[in-house]
Amino acid sequence: MKQSNGKAKIYYATDLEVRYNKKDREKTAFIYVRISREDDLEAESYSIQNQIKLLTQLATEYGYTVLIIFMDDGITGVIAKRPGFQNMLAKLEQQYAAALFVKDLSRLYRNRTEADKLIDDFLPEHEIRLVSVGDSIDTAEGDDEFIFLRNWANEQYARDISKKRRLSNRVRGNAGEPLSMPPYGYMKDPENPKRWIVDEEAAATVRRIFSMTLDGYGTEQIAAALSADKILTPMFYWRSKGVKRPGKVTDREPHKWNSSTVVKILSLQEYCGDVINFKTYSKSFKHKERLPNSEENWAIFKDVHNPIIDRGIWEQVQQKRGKVRKRVTNEGEKSMFSGLLRCADCGKNLWYHFNQKNHDIKYFNCSNYKGNRGTCTSTHYVRVDFLEQVVLGEIRRLTQFASRYETEFVKAAIGQSQQNIEAEREALRRELKALQKRDAELDNLFQRIYEDNESGKITDERFAKMSVSYETEQAELVQRVKALQMELDKETDKSMSMDLFIAKVRKYTRAKKLTQRMLNELVDYIEVCQAEKIDGVHVQKLKIHYNCVGSIEIPNVLPLPQPEVLIQTRKGVAVSYSQSQNVANF
Question: What is the pTM of this model?
Answer without folding.
Answer: 0.50
